[in-house]
């Protein structure tokens, strides 16, 4: 047992990221059933859709699971009320000030974790009363920190500053990556991209196949003026880069982005005009597998890497 498995009452210190258009109840329950912590990604769900996924997740697993709530969306009060009404015990918040909702969640007996991209934000989250933080390096897919701090440097810098449990995220899809993160000071890991390419992921099969095809250098962090996001370099991404050559305003970028661009790409499978959010580690993902198999593979490789490391001579 370690601080993360104790905190969430799970078998392995592995959290499945609550990704938009990817992390529905099927994926969350599969990861929880396999001994990790599954998260439902509420960022792409209307409140009543979220309620439905929570209810289905409760039927699909008797193990702990949580909900990820990006705080840049509307309807937050409604979403938080549903989380309380449905008896969710774990909430991961991101993309906002942890002071805003942590007291509300804590007074309802909910374990709160906040996602940060810097040591300064980690300290603010700790001061706000969260139970743990996820420190996410800029290798990660989807919305990201502006500072482009890598996971390898971020984890020890956050560890040095805080005294609550630390979960590493960004560029972790293997047991070797998990071991590296824990050597650097993490108590557990959050895995996103690898689970996006799982059988239970709610992403469109086109997107899953695209993840498997991605190679080193095929993703880029962009749209920093709006909210930094790591995307696969498809037709839409090239249109963004073309617009940048014209010194666009924020409104110009918003107009090109439009609405439901991520849904179009990841959920509906439009690989040309959709927004395809995935991490740099996709270059190491070569197959679509069941979530249970992915989690077991990470644990097996972690133990193997730990043994191999102990046998190295220096």
CATH homologous superfamily annotation of the largest domain: Aldolase class I
What percent of the residues sit in helical stretches (DSSP H or I)? 40-55%
Mean pLDDT over the residues: 96
The span between the termini is 29 Å
User: How are the strands of the biggest sheet laid out side by side?
Assistant: 1-9-8-6-5-4-3-2
Would you identify the CATH architecture of the largest domain? Alpha-Beta Barrel
Total domain units:
2
- Low-confidence segments, ≥5 residues, pLDDT <50? none
The third-level CATH topology of the largest domain is: TIM Barrel
Percent of residues in β-strands: 5-15%
Sheet with the most strands, sense and barrel status: 8 strands, parallel
Taking all Cα atoms into account, the compactness measure Rg is: 18 Å
CATH class of the largest domain: Alpha Beta
Tally of DSSP β-strands: 11
Shape: globular
- Based on helices, strands and strand pairing, what is the structural class? alpha/beta
Number of helices: 14
Order of helices and strands: HEHEHEHEHEHEEHEHEHHEEHHHH
């Amino acid at each position: 047992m370690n601080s993360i498995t104790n905190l969430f009452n799970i078998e392995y210190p592995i959290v499945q990221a609550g990704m938009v258009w990817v992390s529905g109840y099927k994926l969350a329950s599969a990861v929880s059933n396999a001994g990790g912590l599954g998260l439902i990604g509420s960022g792409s769900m209307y409140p009543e859709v979220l309620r439905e996924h929570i209810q289905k997740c409760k039927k699909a697993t008797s193990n702990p699971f949580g909900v990820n709530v990006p705080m840049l969306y509307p309807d937050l009060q409604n979403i938080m009320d549903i989380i309380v009404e449905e008896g969710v015990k774990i909430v991961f918040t991101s993309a906002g000030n942890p002071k805003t909702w942590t007291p509300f969640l804590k007074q309802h007996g909910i374990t709160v974790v906040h996602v940060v991209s810097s040591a300064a934000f980690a300290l603010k989250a700790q001061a706000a009363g969260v139970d743990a933080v996820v420190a996410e390096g800029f290798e990660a897919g989807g919305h990201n920190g502006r500072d482009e701090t890598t996971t390898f440097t971020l984890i020890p810098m956050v560890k040095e500053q805080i005294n609550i449990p630390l979960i590493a995220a960004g560029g972790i899809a293997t047991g070797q990556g998990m071991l590296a993160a824990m050597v650097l000071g993490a108590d557990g890991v959050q895995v996103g991209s690898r689970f996006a390419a799982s059988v239970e992921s709610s992403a469109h099969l086109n997107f899953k196949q695209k993840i498997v095809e991605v190679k080193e250098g095929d993703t880029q962090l962009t749209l920093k003026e709006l909210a930094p996001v790591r995307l696969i370099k498809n037709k839409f991404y090239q249109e963004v880069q073309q617009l940048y050559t014209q010194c666009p305003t924020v409104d110009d970028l918003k107009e090109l982005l439009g609405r439901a661009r991520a849904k179009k790409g990841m959920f509906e499978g439009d690989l040309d005009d959709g927004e395809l959010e995935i991490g740099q580690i996709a270059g190491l993902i070569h197959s679509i597998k069941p979530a249970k198999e992915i989690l077991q593979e990470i644990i097996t490789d972690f133990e193997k890497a730990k043994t191999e490391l102990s046998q190295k001579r220096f």
